[in-house]
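G., the chain you wanted modeled:
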Amino acid sequence: MQTRLFVSFAFCFQMLAISLSAQNFLLMRYDENYEYLKDSLQNFYNTLKFYPLSKNKKNYASFGGEARFEFVSMHNETWGKTNIGQDIFYLQRYDFHGNVHFGNRFRIFAQLRSALENGRKNGPRPIDEDKLNVQNLFADAVVWNKATRSLTLRIGEQELDYGSSRLISVRDGPNVRLYFTGAKAMYASSRFYADVFVMKADTLNPGVFDNKTSKNVNLWGIYSSRMISEIANLDIFYIGIYRENAVFEEGTANETRHTIGFRFFKNVGGFTYDLEGTYQFGKFGNGDISAWATAIDIGYQLPHVKFKPSINLRNDYISGDGHQGDGKLGTFNPIYPQGGYFGFDPQVGSANLIAIHPYATFMFLPNLVLQTDIVMSWRQSLQDGIYRPSGTFYLAGSSSSSRHIGNAFLATTVYSLNRFITLNTGIQYFKTGSFIHDIIPNSKNGLFLDARIKFMF
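Predicted structure as C-alpha cells:
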C-alpha cells in the first residue's frame, strides 16, 4: 500500500516538474527560500511552496517533505566477529516541514520526521529507527540587517552541518539524521559568515517522541568561512565537546575536548582542492588529550572528454593513541562526522587511521552519474585499535603488530528522474587486511548492497 501511494505521488510531481523551474532541494531544508514565487502563477504546487498569510504577501508559509525507501543487504558486516552472515532489511524515512515567515525579520521552522526499520536480524541500530520525533523546531530573529550584512539569532531544536561534514554533519546517509537543541548566532556578509553555537545533544531513542535532551551543554564553538579570492576559500573553526564515560582503547573517562582547525578549498575551472588540518587538546579523566588530523583531496574534471570524467585523490592521516596505558589520550575524536566519508557503508571511522582514497566520477547522462572508489586503510598507531564511523570504539589493537585494516572497493550510481525523484544504488566489497586477520580468527570479507529511492517536494 505504501509503495502504491508513493508511486502515485511521484507520478503527479513528475508531471509538475515538466513545467516548473525552481531551486533544487537543499540538504538543510530550512535554507530553502520560496519568496520568489509570490508573483508567480498560483497552481497547487506553487501555493504549497508559497502560501500568503497577508494581503501584502510579506507574511507567508511554505511546506515541504520527503519520503525515502531503502533496501539493504549486508554480508559479514562484522568481518566474522559475530555469526550474522547475510542480513537483508528495509528502511523508510518520512518527513514534513512548515516554514512560516513574518516579514523579513522573524520566522518559525518546524519539521516532523519518522524513520523506520524492518527485517534486520538483531533489530534496528541507533542510526536506523526513530519512529517519530521533532527534528527541527526553532525560531529565527534578524536583529541587525544593513546592506549585505546581517546578524540572526536562532533558538530551538535544529540540524547542523559545517564545511566538508568531517566534524559536524547532519548525517543524511543513515536513516536517522542528527539534531541538537540550543542557540546560534549567525553573522553573514557577501564574502564572509560566522556561526557561534551552544548546543545540547539529544539522546535518540527508537520510539515516538521519546528522545531526551541532555541536561548539560556538550557542544559549543564557532565556525567561520571567508572567500579570500576567486581561487581560494578559507574556513577557520573552533569546536568544544563534553562526553561522560567516553570509551577509547586507552580506557573510559569523562572527556572535555577542544578542536581548532582550518579548511582551504575551491573549485576552479575543473580543478578542485580541499586541504584540512585539525588539532585537538583537552582532558580525558586526569590525563591530557593531544590529537590531530590532516586531509588532502585534489581532483580534476575533463569536461571535453566523453562522459566528463573527474579523477580525485584523497589522503587522510588521523592520529591514534601512541602510548597505550599511560593515561594520556592521542586518539582523534571525529565529533559528529558524516557517516559515509570513507565509503557509503564505512566500517572504519576517522580515528587512528591512514587512508588513501582514489575515486572517479562519470556522467553517462545529464541525470546519471557513476562513481567508483577504492579506500585503502591502515592504523596510524599500532598501540590503538579501530573505531566506527561515529567514533565508537570497536576493536582493540595493542595486541597486534599489523597495520593494514583492509581495502574497500565501491561503485555507486545516482539517477535523477527529475528534481523530485532520485534513485541511488551501490555495491561495496571490503577485503580484510592483516590487522583484521590478527584480531578476528577466521575473519571474512564484507559485501554491502544498497538501493534507495527518494522523493522530495
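Residues 1-21 have pLDDT under 50 and may be disordered.

Shout if anything looks off.
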